[in-house]
Amino acid sequence: MLDPATPAVVLAPMEGVTDAPMRAALGESGAFTYAVAEFLRVAHTVPGRAVVRRHVPELLSGGRTPSGLPVQLQLLGGDPGRMAEAAAVAHAAGAAAIDLNFGCPAKTVNRHDGGAALLRDPPRVRAVVAAVRAAVPRGVPVSAKLRLGWDTPDAIDTVAAMAAEGGATWLTVHGRTRAAGYAPPAYWRPIGRVRERLGLPVVANGDIWTVADFRRCRDETGCQHFMLGRGALADPRLPRQVAAELGLAPAVPPDDANRPVDWAAELRRLVGWVSRFTPASPGGTVRRLKQWLAMAARHGGFAGFEVVKRVETLDDLLAAVVAVRSLGAERPPGSARTRHVRECLVGNDRC
To answer: What confidence tens digit (pLDDT) does each residue in 261-273 have?
Structure first.
């Protein structure tokens, strides 16, 4: 999964986004070292083996996507005993590595003693990690995903130390507190401090949108392992560019790096995997594609969302995306060029 001596590019878990079809689609690039699945919640009952495999269907295929990308299962919960039971079930279901989510900032999760809520109780972070560590064989990695703290970034020193004491194999640290949510900026220097003090492998996460961001993050943290989430969705070329910077992939030709993303090709790839993993639902597929384009648009990766957001069928959506690219609507939604493309798509005779 994670080799401490080898650089890595990791696909982040994002609830409702990076599910099995998306992991399969993004994994085709060959840029990622492994992916972390969306969290499996462990509340009052421990999920059974069938639930675990339904949540991470790659476990039925050796824990890998169809292209061979390893997938790490992630558990979320605050009770050490139940988390240990869940880890044992997950291992029996085929999980080769377990990640523990102490970073989710969602209020609904935090209110129910999960995710970043545990950052306020570092000894319990240690207890959960230790319980899970004891529940699976020594050869099964147990990692922890953290934020800098609940509302103060200095808390990371204590929380990370507790996770290490519990037996974490490596840590992934997102450079924000829970209180900060996803508001910029991410603070990378504390991540580097954790790496230096603990001597554990540390995966740096947060606000890596461009190759320039990656370089700054690497310089500030000293890390050689990086997790990409929203940045990989906003620009699907970014993982391969980062992998090339780390010596894990061939250099990306400048012409390719400067060319607009071929969103139609990216969407068709995802459509293919959605059809393999989920029951047929044309409307659901269109909503998924719009979700991806909306995320990309919010972060500057797709300038034509205003053009395509009202399209209702899959064929029309893909045609609209092709038209946006061919007509050059790579400008802000309110620009004259984008308005021109919208007029073309609705049949205006001025095109």
So the answer is: 999 999 999 999 9
